[in-house]
Amino acid sequence: MQQKHSFVDRIEETLIALLLGLMTVITFANVIARFGFNSNILWALELTVFLFGWLVLLGASYAVKKHSHLGVDAIINMMPRPVARIMGLISVGACIAFSLLLLKGAYDYWAVFADLPPTSGRWFPTGFADKFRSQSFYEVQDVPMIGLFKFLEDLINYGEEYEKLPKVVPYFVLPLSMALLVYRFFQVAFQIWRGETDRLVASHEVEDEIEEVREQLGEHD
Fold it and tell me: What's the maximum distance between 2 C-alpha atoms anywhere in the chain?
């Protein structure tokens, strides 16, 4: 199980690092083109924005898994562990409810670009809409179409060619990241339920480790 978790961690970390690296390379190349050759990579800014969106949204769910989100644990630290555990379950329950709302909204926004029906229901899905206006022909402003996504022309655009990248591709991160966010919150909920932790956010473990190092150094002195 630990090896599986490590493998998944490596995939997520590699993807996040790749997104950050691509942002850096594209931005650097555009700066060189602009100031070195008096030119411009027209699609660089838009693609960088999309990559940044993927980085932030995927990073949010990864940070939940690693308990890396910022939080205030002053009250939790004053409570006995059983009470802190109950408070943790309440907190993660609220986060799950909120992330489910985000997942519905994210899917509904993306679905019309994929020629799929959005869900019905104001807050929680009650089914799928019978009638909707497909927006599968919507394209981004600058990023050109690439051969990797040519299959989408027959799949969702009724054989019509795309000149620019269809919005369904970059916006796919919305339902993907929100689904991962729900999954990660459920993972934390199970960890709290099993007693492996009692909170969503990391405690003062780093401060404790620093103090231990100081004590060890003091003993050697």
Answer: 76
Residue 51's alpha-carbon distances to 23, 173, 202, 216, in angstroms, are: 7, 10, 28, 44
Model pLDDT for residues 84-97, shown as the tens digit of each residue: 888 889 989 999 99
3-state SS, residue 158 = coil
The neighbouring-strand residues paired with 144 are: 164
Under 8 Å between Cβ of 76 and 200: no
Q: DSSP per residue over 14-66, as a string? A: HHHHHHHHHHHHHHHHHHHHHHHHS---TTHHHHHHHHHHHHHHHHHHHHHHT
Cα–chain center distance at 197 = 23
Q: How many whole angstroms separate alpha carbon 171 and alpha carbon 161?
A: 19
Size of the chain in residues: 221
Structure tokens at 3: 């090896």
pTM equals 0.82
For residues 167 and 41, give the distance between their C-alpha atoms in angstroms, rounded to a whole number: 20
d(CA 188, CA 104): 21
Q: Where are the domains of the chain?
A: 2-202
User: What distance in Å separates the CA atoms of residue 14 and residue 18, rounded to the nearest whole number?
Assistant: 6
